[in-house]
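To the structural biology subgroup,

Please find below the input and predicted structure for CD48 antigen, which we are adding to the shared reference set this quarter. The sequence is reproduced verbatim from the submission form. If anyone notices a discrepancy with their own records, reply to this email rather than editing the shared folder directly, so we keep one authoritative version.
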Amino acid sequence: MEQKIVTYEYEPKVVQMGDPLILKTDAKVHTHVLIQWLHKNTLIATISGLTRKFSIYDEVLNGKFKDRLNLDKKTGSLTITNITTEHNGQYTLKIIKGCRVSFRFFGVTVYDTFKPVPVDKKKTISLPSDLTEINEDDVIQYFFGHSAEPIAQIYGKERPTYYNDERFTGRLKIDQTGSLTITDARTTDSGLYELHIFRSERKMAKLFSVTVSGK
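Predicted structure (tokenized):
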């Protein structure tokens, strides 16, 4: 019995609302390849090299992909046009080639706003949530540099949690509105910060481009 070889990869993707998002396979469609795309464990597109047939299932998940999906017949790459925040989440690429099965997971974040945040060294970085208060069922998370793990988060009215990232030790604070401050700004704090807000089954995202300057 031939043994299957399985490989896994993860890639975060950040895209502005309304833009197209291209999820690449880095492969070519040929006779012995089957490519499948899933969103939250639901099949949304597939292409078979054996039959040269492709299918797009844009009616699934309450039709949120209706007329938005395009599949490249040569590579199997998937494009989502006019993307919105309801398209946030994990996308799975499954490629079956003989006895080899590979999975690539794309963590997609669609942000509503992009805000440049210039700040002088030693000052305080402020990343506003634009909320007036945190509700009991809110989940608020902050990410830095496209990391898969948050640097800070808060669940409803509970105390915030700050994760063990030595770059920010003792310098992070989430207030009662869910906004984040980083004290004693350093040049190594420069980069992209993602704010994810989960509220009443809706996810909102904001992207901050922080530049720390000065001696």
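Summary notes: Residues 60-63 form the longest helix (4 residues). Residues 125 and 171 are 10 Å apart (CA to CA).

Regards,
Lab coordination
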